[in-house]
Amino acid sequence: MIRAFLGGMRIHVIQFSRNPFDLSGVFLWPILYASIAYYLLRSKDDPRLMLAASLGAAVMLMWSLVVIGSSNALENQRWLGTLELLVAAPAPFAAAIASITVASGFVGAYGFVATLLWGRLLFHVPIAIDDPFAFVLAILCCVLAIGTLGLVMASTFVLYRAAFSLGIGLQYPVWIATGLLVPLSVLPAFVGKIGWLLGPYWGFRAIRQAALGGGPWPQMGMCLVVSAAYVVIGALCLRLFVRVARSTGSLKLT
Amino acid sequence: MDGLCRTYRSRRGIARRRRNDVEALRGISFEVERGELFGLLGPNGAGKTTTIKILATLLLPSAGSARVLGFDPAREPGKVRPRIGHVFGGDRGLYDRLSALDNLRYFADLYRVPVREKRARIGELLELVGLAGRERERVETYSRGMRQRLHIARGLLHDPEILFLDEPTIGLDPVGAREVRETVATLRTQGKTILLTTHYMYEADELCQRIAVISEGELAAAGTPSELKARVRDRTIVEIETFGVEYDVLERLRAVEGVASVATETREQAVVVLVQSQRGSELVQRLLGELDGTKVGRVITREPTLEDAYVSLVQAS
Asked: Which residues of chain A are at the B interface, by a Cβ-Cβ cutoff of 8 Å?
C-alpha cells in the first residue's frame, strides 16, 4: 500500500512536471493571488492586515491547486484509460487516489509559499511570523487537511466523467464556507457552522494564529481530527463509488 | 461462467427521463481449462469486452455467475485481482508522458511485485516483448505496436495465472500484429491460461486451442477451430467480386434455393459477395443471373475457412 502510494505520487509529479500548461499555471497563479490580496487592502496601510490577507490568498490558492489538480489528474486517468487499471490492481484503490491528492497538496504548499514570497517581492508585504516553528507545522497540517479533503472530493470524481468541471465548481463553496473569500461575520451563521467541518477552515486559522500571534495548537488539533475523519470517509466513499461504477459500467467512459 | 447476463442502463431526456436498457450479455456459459488459450470471437458489440471486464472484476453481472480460479469476481475481487492480468487493445492504458520503464515500475508497485524481483522482472519482460533498449523513451513517442507490446509486459508484471487479452492486435499494422501474435504464442508455450478476444479469424485459428463464438450477447457455438470448420465442411463458398451491390439484389441471392447464407466484404474498391451453399449444388450461373445489372468481376469457388464458419454462425444466431 505504501509503495503504491509513493509510486503514485512520483508518477503524478512527473506527469505534472511534463505538462507546460500546468507548469505555467503554477508559476503564474501565485503572482495573481498575491496581487489580488495586495490591491484589495493596500489602502488600509496596515502591515498585519496585509499579511493576514496574503495568508488568506495563499490558502485559497492552496485549496484551488489541490482540488483542480486532483480533478484534472483523475479526469486525465479516464482519458488515458488507466482508471480501470487502478481499480483492477491488487493495491487499494484509495492508495492510488490518495497519492494524487496528497501530491496535489504538496503542489498546493508550494503555491502557498510562492504567494507569500511574490507578495513580499512585488508589493513589500511583510512576512513577520510570530512563531516560525508553529507556522511551519500549521502549513503541514493545512496541507494534510486540504489533501485529505481532496480525497473525499476525489471519490466523487471517480463517479462522474466531468471531474475537472466539478473540481472548478468545488473551489468556491469551500472558499466561502471557510471565510477565505469574505468574512464569515457578514454571512448567515450556518455558513460558519459548515466551515467547522472543513479542513481549510482550521488550517487557515492555525496558520493565521501562528503568523500573527495567538495559540495555533487547538486549530492544528482540529486539522488532524478532521483529516483523520476525511481519510475514513474518503476510503469508504471510494469503496462505495467504485462498486457503483462497476455496477453502472462507467469506469471506462470519458 | 454460468448464464452470465449484463444489461447496461442509461437514461435520456431532461423533463421526462426515459430508461434505455441494452442487453450486452444474455446468458453466456462456457469454461476455460487451465493452461488453455481460449478465443472469444464475435462481431463488434457482441459482448466480448463485457465478458472480459466481468471476469477482470471491472463490471458486475446483472445475472448469472462466473468463477475465476474458484473465486467469484463480483464478490471476491480482492482474491481475483492478484491472479489475473488484463491487457486491452488500442492506445489507451498507459501514462504517455512517462517512459516505458516508469510505467512498468509504477504498475509493479500497484501489482505488489516484490521489491527485490522488480528490476529483474521488468528486464525479462522488456526482453520478452522486444522493447529492451527502448525502455527509457517516453511512451508518447512509441508506435502503436510498441505500445501494445508494452501493454502485454504490464499485464505480465506480477506473473498472473490467467491473462485476459482484449483485442490485442486491433489497429496494428501486419508486422506489429504478427509480433504481438508471436508474443502470445510464446506465453502459450509457457503454460499461461489465456482468454483472447478478437474478430480476426486467422488470429483465432493460428493461436487458439478452443474458440467460443458469441453474437448479440449469446453463445453461438464453441469448440476447436477444426470442429467449427467442420460445421461448414459440407458447403462450398462462391466469392463474387462486384463494384457495388444493392440490398435487394442480396435478398434475391438469399432466396435462391440451396443458398445457406450471403455476406459481403469490402476489399479495396470491390464489394465481394460471399455465398455459402451446399456442396455439390451448381449455383454459380443462377447467382450470376440474379446479379443481372450489377457490375461483376472475378468469380471464385473455394473450400470453406474458419471465417466462413464464423459468418455462418453469426448469421444463424
From this structure: 3-4, 6-8, 10-11, 14-15, 18-19, 79-82, 84-91, 96, 243, 246-249, 251-252
